[in-house]
Every structure is written in structure tokens, then in C-alpha cells.
Design goal:
alpha/beta; two-stranded parallel sheet
Length: about 290
């Protein structure tokens, strides 16, 4: 990152610290995904339109190397990306195929939706206070696949119905509800496997999810990218490319070919992986 960006970043961070006594950027949820709510921070100092809110949003935009938000929707998206929610109901995450054990609200909701072959839409409140919940006992750690785009979850539910293997969707940059759910599943012993778009933003999202939740890549290597562009050789450009910590060759391959591959274009490959997982869990009921 250019030196000037680093200077601006420090100036913004210092300014925020001075304007919010006793607080710091980590304390307001920046880069932590803890589901902090803005009304809980500094006596509403971060309410929309306040000077401190504007200052923090400028700092966040600098930290993420993006343009400052201009609309209310862009401001909400940036707060959510930083792990700061408007409230416990606005941030939601969608999931399918989850069959947790227990009488807690989250476990019962997830099971009911899975049995109906539907996605569960879970709020930050649900995942912060799940109640009694454990994952089913399996010989090996339960694998929960994670995708970036809702269309992949929709295709999986259409194909597998109530036999859909565990699948969580971040819907782009994961909000606090998504991070909290993935951490909850990981804490219960699940092995998280992440796939997203092969473009600059998709790689940054993947790196963020893996860092925050301990997920491992799922078909996200340079070899997977090269295989994908053989079948999709005329895609858009990938945008600004940054390194993939799990595979240093991936950024080089994307820069060489200069083609983005969105997740939907490799949906058939992902669904075959999910089919194999579903057959292991339901050998008599999957195709």
C-alpha cells in the first residue's frame, strides 16, 4: 500500500481515538466481526450523520482501501464489514443443511428449515444467544462448506432438498452474523471450507473469512483458477489483485490471465463436491 495511505490511516485512527474517550478502533469492532452495535458505543457517538461517525467511516474506508461511502446503504455495508451492526436484527446470515442437536432456538430453527429443504435466515441475535446447541456426532469432523454467493446455496437446496449438506452463505463480505455463526460452528468442532469468486474482491473476502473463522480454502488454488478459466475464457477483468495467503501462486495466475471467474460459473464443480458430501451423510437419498 502506498506510504501516503499509511499516513492518512494513522491520522484518521489518531483522530478517532481522540474523539471517542476510552475507545479505540478495535473496541468499536473494526476488523473483529464481534457484532458490536453502534448504539452501544460511546453514547450514540457513532449514530449516522454525527462528526465522529463520519470520521470513523473515513478511517474504515482508508483501512479497506475503498472510496468513502456516499449513501446510507453504503454506510451500513461498511459498518457491517467492520463488524459493527446497526442492531441485532439487521445483520442476517443464510444457511442450509444444518442439523444441530439441542433445544435452543437456533438449533430448532435450523433443523426445521433443513427438514423442509429451505434456507434458514438467522439474525445476529440468534447466533449471539443460540441456547442449547451441539453438532451431530460424526466419525470425522463435520464439514461445513461456505460460499460467497446466495445463488450457490439456492442451487444446492434445489438439487438436494432436505438432504443438503451443511452450507453457509456470506452474501459477499460477511457481516457480523455470518462471522459469529461460522465461529460458533467451528467452536463446536466443524471443519469450515470456503469458496468464493476468483476476482480481486473475492480473494480479499476469502482471506478475511479464513482469518476470522479458521476456514480452509475449498477449490480456491491457482490450479482451480486455471481449470476454471479454460471453460470461461472471456470473463471480465478481476480488478485490483492482492495476495492469497493460502496459495502465493494464485495472485500470479490471476494477474497473468487477467480474467475473473465468478462463483456461479463453477457451480457444477461445487455441486459435485456437495453431492459427494451428501452421499456420505445420506447414502440412500442423494443424487
Amino acid at each position: 500500500m502506498p506510504q501516503q495511505v499509511g499516513v492518512v490511516r494513522q491520522r484518521h485512527v489518531d483522530g478517532v481515538a481522540q474523539r471517542i474517550p476510552g475507545q479505540s478502533l478495535p473496541a468499536v469492532g473494526v476488523h473483529c466481526g464481534e457484532g458490536v452495535q453502534r448504539p452501544e458505543i460511546a453514547a450514540h457517538a457513532l449514530d449516522d450523520g454525527t462528526p465522529v461517525s463520519t470520521l470513523v467511516l473515513r478511517a474504515l474506508a482508508t483501512l479497506y482501501d475503498i472510496a468513502p461511502p456516499q449513501s446510507a446503504a453504503e454506510r451500513r455495508a461498511l459498518w457491517s464489514r467492520a463488524g459493527v451492526a446497526d442492531d441485532e436484527l439487521s445483520a442476517t446470515v443464510i444457511a442450509g443443511g444444518l442439523r444441530p442437536v439441542g433445544d435452543g432456538l437456533l438449533a430448532r430453527m435450523a433443523r426445521l428449515c433443513t427438514e423442509a429443504g429451505q434456507a434458514a435466515s438467522l439474525t445476529l441475535a440468534h447466533v449471539r444467544s443460540p441456547g442449547e446447541l451441539t453438532l451431530p456426532a460424526t466419525p470425522a469432523p463435520l464439514v461445513v462448506h461456505v460460499v460467497e454467493n446466495p445463488s450457490i446455496l439456492a442451487l444446492a437446496l434445489r438439487r438436494f432438498g432436505s438432504n443438503c449438506p451443511p452450507l453457509v452463505c456470506t452474501s459477499g463480505w460477511p457481516n457480523s452474523a455470518a462471522i459469529q455463526l461460522l465461529r460458533l460452528l467451528a467452536d463446536q468442532g466443524a471443519a469450515l471450507r470456503y469458496h468464493g469468486d476468483f476476482d480481486g474482491e473475492g480473494i480479499r473476502i476469502a482471506a478475511y473469512v479464513m482469518e476470522k473463522t479458521g476456514a480452509r480454502p475449498w477449490r480456491m488454488t491457482a490450479a482451480d483458477y486455471r481449470s476454471a478459466i479454460v471453460r470461461n475464457a472471456h470473463g471480465p477483468r478481476p480488478g485490483r489483485i492482492t495476495g492469497a495467503p493460502w496459495d502465493p501462486e494464485l495472485a500470479e495466475a490471476m494477474a497473468e490471465h487477467d480474467i475473473a471467474v465468478v462463483e456461479e460459473l463453477v457451480a457444477d464443480v461445487l455441486l459435485e463436491d456437495l453431492a459427494a458430501a451428501a452421499r456420505q451423510e445420506h447414502p440412500d437419498g442423494c443424487s
